[in-house]
Amino acid sequence: PAETDSPTGGRSGALTPGPSVGADVQKIDVNPPKGTRDFPPEDMRLRNWLFNHFKEVSRLYGFEEVDYPVLESEALFTRKAGEEIKDQLYCFEDRGNRRVALRPELTPSLARLVIQKGKSVPLPIKWFTVGQCWRYERMTRGRRREHYQWNMDIIGVPGVMAEAELLSSIVTLFKRIGITESDVGFKVSSRKVLQEVLNCYSVPEHLFGKVCVIIDKIEKIPVDEIKKELKAVGLSQEAVQKLLQVLSVKSLEELEERLGSSGEAIADLKQLFSLAEKIGFSKWLQFDASVVRGLAYYTGIVFEAYQHSHAQPQLSHAHPQGFDREGKLRAICGGGRYDHLFSTFGADDIAACGFGFGDAVIVELLKEKGLLPELNLNVDDIVCALDEDLQGRAAMVANILREKGHSVELVLESKQLKWVFKRAARVNAERLVLVGNSEWQRGVVGVKILSTAEQYEIKLDDLK
Ligand SMILES: OCc1cccc(Br)n1
User: Fold this and answer.
1) With a 6 A CB cut-off, is 293 part of the ligand 1 pocket?
2) I need a labelling partner for 295 at 20 to 30 A (CA). Which of 257, 394, 415, 418 fits?
3) 147 in contact with ligand 1, CB cutoff 6 A
């Protein structure tokens, strides 16, 4: 065997150039398409670690896993509310001239499947999924075009116990990965606050989604721009003023003073905070009237998880009214109630709430907090033939071990022991199993415990 082989870096096994090399074959771009990511092993281990936590929390809360095609009819996402998610839709016409889109979110697919299943699925429906979502954004901002989202949804429960269960499940996830309430908090409000104000000014129902999408930009664009856009959709100067005033309310008590105590918004929020107290996660929550979320279909409680910024909360130049919700980091996750989404798909409405939790912002936060787990490839055994003619025997030994549930790295070529030890270290093997002629004649194989250098021989039948 070539002495120069190195399991840690040399290109052992490299082939002599094939017929195409040297011809006018264009070398392909080995990077993934703009805005997309590969997951080489070390990244895939972290992704699996995170997704396994998502799935385990979903199991703990009694949710069933579902999945949908990443490709959907464009019609699922063509809401007319000026949402960014619609402007950046990754849509195209397929070879059958159908308008299709790579899904930018998972909730419309869930609604589609629930409607398809109709009465055959008893309520409440509690489904979860982890799925890749897409957007087509001009790369001017160099942002990602895909991410994975964990979604949990409860369908058929009108009361805020559903929102409490969802918030509780996210707190459980945060605790499992080492995030505490000093790192992250939820800003909670209800769109019924806006609804009640708009009703006072007889703003027509069909403008509700548009108004919410505009207000969701309150942290991102100057407040004068917000006012301009609100007036452009038909709100009076007075309605705009009143809206912005109510959005800067700093407590539930103050909100109750402004809206009175008979409205649903106050009742829902008081009940939710009271449940959070009883369940034990109220210290993770804070009321923030300016949270509306950017999806048009939310109708009630809405929430976002943010990283607490430990910098002094100062009023930013754009929002002297103090709309600068602390911290510039994008929301870690967000969700809320969407009781009228189903009727926008031509079906009867069903009470619904859910959240989306992306795979990127949370990893940035874990990195920042030094909470990323150490994840390495580990195998139980590395099996090696000491002589060329024992390769088959070595493979048989490997399979005996595999049938016993051992993860086994079988050395596939004739290699120097030096190479084998290096490979054993790279794959973090516990044991080295050596298959040699003299041992084989005596019906045994050699075993070396790599952490202690203890070594012994063992009969094949006694291998465990
Ligand atoms: O959260 C908005 C979004 C949707 C799809 C893909 C990506 Br990256 N981001």
Assistant:
1) no
2) 257
3) yes
